[in-house]
Design goal:
It contains eight helices and seven strands. By secondary structure, it is of the alpha/beta class. It has a seven-stranded mixed beta sheet, sandwiched between helices.
Length: 234
Amino acid sequence: MTEPKSFFLSPEGQRYLVDHGATPDETQAALIAETADLGGISMMQISPEQGAFMTLLTRLVGARRAVEVGTFTGYSALCIARGLPADGQLLCCDVSEEWTAVARRHWDAAGVSDKIDLRIGPALDTLRALADEPTFDLAFIDADKPTYPAYYEEVLRRLRPGGVILVDNVLWGGAVIEPTVDDENTNAIRAFNRMIADDPRVDSVILTVGDGLTVARKRDGAPAEHAPAENASV
């Protein structure tokens, strides 16, 4: 918790946010510590303040069914599951048995395992195997960046009107506004951000939470498909 996930937030600033929001409990703190022991890859874990926001938003939306694309060691899933009612269900999609084994132990400790359905395999395969109907209330996407548009489309078509999609890392450490940065991930996020901004099926905003968090609400009567304008600027 001493290393902010946001490129503009100091350690002191993050500590203030955490201390005056929802401070991680013993189980969450243990998961943060174990993930930190993995080394630099631990930065894939969402920040405590983002986790607290996601728990609160899950409750505000009144979500009963949620889906997560990219679970890692399970902190975000734990936070979403805690926001669900007792009979709520979270579908988690990930490809790593190793990282999600960490998640499973901490979900057990937190008492939320019965709310979580973890499926190991390519997330697109998992999503496309689901019924093509709007059954989800909430979604969180935090996986490989070039595939964000495909994840978004598969989730959106299965999201009820008024449901919310959260998408992580959309500021990418500030690289999205640096004209000299020209790598695959940065360009993918730029294109994705432009796509969401131009999508008439949702109302959306980018929040300066963690590494940038898009919140997109599906509009009533939104069509299943949207053809983006050709040659759109990113």
